Amino acid sequence: MKNYYVAKSRRVRSTPYTSRIENQGVTAYSVYNHMLLPAAFGSLEDSYHHLKEHVQIWDVAGERQVEIIGKDAAKLVQLMTCRDLSKSKIGRCYYCPIIDDKAGLINDPVVLKLREDRWWISVADSDVILFAKGLAIGKNFDVKIFEPNVDILAVQGPKSFRLMEKIFGTKTTEMKFFGFDYFEFEGVKHLIAKSGWSKQGGFEIYVENTKSGLALYDKLFELGKEFNVKPGCPNLIERIESALLSYGNDMDNNDNPFECGLDKFVHLDSNINFLGKEKLKEVRKKGINKKLMGVIIDTNEISVSKSINLTNDENLIIGELRSGGYSPHFKKVIGIAMLNKPYYEVSQKFKISINDEVFEGKVCDLPFI
Ligand code: THG
């Protein structure tokens, strides 16, 4: 496969860490929220093993924040998500599907409650800021909505805890999963959450003070030497094994939260008010016609750049593969696929054509591990 460069411009934004990761050997970029997102540092498989054993620093500045501040901030955030935030606490993160009036997914961000009247929506790849502004205008809400200067650095992997302790002390590791607090580095406070887009453990540092963030970046690499620290990025295989969904890849505006297995984050029986509630009640009553599932395919290579049809023995299309890659753990290709009813059952067999060769596969539960 030939590789191409991404042409940089003001529109495809660099991050404060771009020059650093380029010196450290980034080999591929994706674009996320109109910003460069590193996609590889050499071999995906080597990075996968390294992430599961050591510690990595990720430039995930592309996970932009939508700040909502003002008297009606809580009302607006709740209007956008089907997750009940009425008992939410300051200092906590919440994974929240955002849906439209037809219950189609708009995004699946992490929401941070900074204050009763100040929230950050840490968005996946879609323009939530425009949706939020539209709603606020239509509802005449008293809020200010903008993208603050926040560039997340993720510290991920089993040795992330010891590395963070060395810089910030044990208070960071004592935080609960999805909790956040402010911690000082050389006189500057940084918001740090125990979270991240891997299941190997770790933190996310919401860098607002760029100068201090860059010094912190260098410090993480300096003190991380003894933990075999390396630059990294969200790892396709690790995240599929862990069933961390990727908006735009695994699901989009044509899918609802039930179809994506996000039932845990849908709260239809409390008296909160959110967009798409009636539609979701209807879906709950009628049931779904498709479902996101895991798949295992009998091959050792795949590159998914668009949906690939899955067919049964009668050559009927029964679903589509949306993400996939070779898993060193299963020694096969694993993926995330949308299966049509009634084919979304575990052990359902299918065929898939990759580069004119046909392979066999079967459906399984998420997460893989
Ligand atoms: N961190 C931050 N912002 C983000 C992401 C992130 N924005 C974009 C994208 N990632 C949003 N998507 C997800 C998907 C899953 C999770 C986080 C963000 C996640 N899920 C856990 C799980 O599925 O086990 C926990 C969910 C829960 O129980 O609440 O962590 O990574 N800042």
How does the helix and strand content classify structurally?
A: alpha+beta
What is the CATH fold-level name of the largest domain? Gyrase A, domain 2
CATH class membership of the largest domain: Alpha Beta
Tell me the number of strands: 21
For the report, how would you describe the main beta sheet? 6 strands, mixed
Summed up, the domain count is 3
CATH superfamily of the largest domain: Probable tRNA modification gtpase trme, domain 1
Low-confidence stretches: none
Please describe the structure with a list of short key phrases separated by commas or semicolons.
alpha+beta, six-stranded antiparallel β-barrel, binds (6S)-5,6,7,8-tetrahydrofolate, Elongation Factor Tu (Ef-tu), domain 3, Gyrase A, domain 2, Alpha-Beta Plaits, six-stranded mixed β-sheet, 369 residues
Provide structural commentary.
The chain is α+β, with helices and mostly antiparallel strands and 369 residues long. The chain folds into 3 domains: 18-58 and 150-240, Probable tRNA modification gtpase trme, domain 1 (Gyrase A, domain 2); 65-139 and 256-286, Aminomethyltransferase beta-barrel domains (Alpha-Beta Plaits); 289-369, Elongation Factor Tu (Ef-tu), domain 3 (Beta Barrel). Helices cover 22% and strands 31% of the residues. It is built from 9 helices and 21 strands. The strands form 5 sheets. Strands 12-13-14-11-3-15 form a 6-stranded mixed β-sheet, with helices on both faces. Strand 6 and strand 7 (105-107) form a beta hairpin. The radius of gyration is 21 Å and the shape is globular. The model has no long low-confidence stretch (mean pLDDT 97). The structure holds (6S)-5,6,7,8-tetrahydrofolate. (6S)-5,6,7,8-tetrahydrofolate (THG) binds next to loops. The site of (6S)-5,6,7,8-tetrahydrofolate has 16 residues, from loops.
